[in-house]
Structure formats: C-alpha cells, structure tokens
Amino acid sequence: MHLRDLWYLTTSVFTTRHDAELTPAEQAAIADAQNIVEIPPPLMPLDTIMWAASIQRGDYIPDGVKEEMALLRRTDFTKLDPAKDFPTDKQAQEALEDHHSDELVNLLKAHHAHIRIGKCYYAVLRQDNPDMEEVTRVTAMVSAFNDKNQNLGNIQLPLITVYDFVKYAGHPDRWYATDFSQTLPFDYVLNK
Fold first, then answer.
1. Which residues pair with 134 in a beta bridge?
2. How far is Cα 134 from Cα 140, in angstroms, rounded to an integer?
3. In sequence order, what DSSP letters do the residues of 40-108 get, joined into one string?
4. Which of 13, 2, 1, 3 is nearest to 35 (CA)?
5. Per mean pLDDT, which of 86-90, 106-110, 150-154 is the most reliable?
6. What is the rounded distance in angstroms from the CA atom of residue 178 to the CA atom of residue 167?
7. Rounded CA gap, 112 and 105, in Å?
8. How distant is the alpha carbon of residue 127 from its chain centre?
9. Which residues pair with 163 in a beta bridge?
10. Quick check: 113 and 129 in contact, CB under 8 A?
C-alpha cells in the first residue's frame, strides 16, 4: 500500500514537469514505481471441504467465501517447505500468551483450554529490525482444545487461526508469535 502511495505521489508530482526537467534520481523513482507488482496479503486458511458442502446444500454463505475458495484452489501449496524446527504446543501457547498478554490467558482459562499447533512451514525471514536478527520463522495454524480434547475452533478474538512463530539470534531457545506472512492450506489433521 505504501508503494502504491509512492507511485501516486511520484507520478502526480513529476508528471506535471517534462521528462527533460527531471533529475536522474526522479526519473529512476518513476521507473521503479511503474515496475511495482502488487502482492496480495496472505489469506487465512479456509476449510474448503466444509464450505463446499454448505454451498452444495444451499446454506447461507457469507460474502467473499466463494471468491476466497476460488483463490485458494488456484494457490500452489506444493512450494511450501515443511519445517523441521518449530515450536511445541507448549512453546506456541507461551508465545501466543506473550503476544496477546492477559486477554488470551484469561480466555484460555475461562474455557479450560490449551493451544495446539499444526503443521509448520518455513517462512521468509524478515530483517526489519537490525537489533532482532531472525534465525527461524515458521507459519502454522493453531487451535484451542478444552480439557475434554474438544476442538473449540476460533473460540474468539484475540485468538486467530494462523500465526508466524519466530526465533531470534539473541533468544535462540525461545519462540515469539507474530502476524502470519503466508497463505497455508487448512490443517485438517489439527482440526479433526
């Protein structure tokens, strides 16, 4: 979105002047802005089996579900790299509790629930913060289960169904939860 703003800014400011009046840096900025490819944000995993059955039965389908299913059907999940280094259920829950603080802790306690993590896939490392060098980043679905081993699904916010889990060079034995960075298939094994 910021790149799109840059594109509008550079084209609106620079197109009022003739190309001959532009500095080489301004010309390069315009050329770069014209070559920007917009990458869609990652999608939340969607239970396509459940929604396909609902559509077939003629049930009410919320706006956008059919379009999202079509996008997911065209997604090539074979390029995902299954992770060998990933958090345990306990480490994932601790990371999520740190990420959401007391709100998630209280929600899990109220439902006598704990977190389970699904199949993890390596994600691209981000180096946004030079003080926090990432050494591992994985994306995975998570679900809450009660003490009767019943899947509570997305019991309510703040818990969502997919996160990235990251280890930093300064804390290589600890996982941190953050926003997810890639689209995953629905984890039917986790959510059976």
1. 168
2. 17
3. PPPPPP--HHHHHHHHHHT----TTHHHHHHHHHT--GGG--B-SS---HHHHHHHHHHHHTHHHHHHH
4. 3
5. 86-90
6. 11
7. 10
8. 17
9. 140
10. no
Matching residue, tokens 């818990």: 159
- Tell me which H or E stretch contains 168: strand 162-168
How does pLDDT run across 2-59, given as a tens digit for each residue?
444 444 444 444 445 555 677 777 777 676 666 676 667 888 888 888 888 888 888 8
Does the predicted model carry a pTM greater than 0.70? yes
H/E/C letters for each residue in 112-167? CEEEEEEEEEECCCCCCCCCCCEEEEEEEEEEEEECCCCECCCCCCCCCCEEEEEE
Kindly report the number of other CB atoms within 10 A of residue 89's CB atom.
Answer: 13
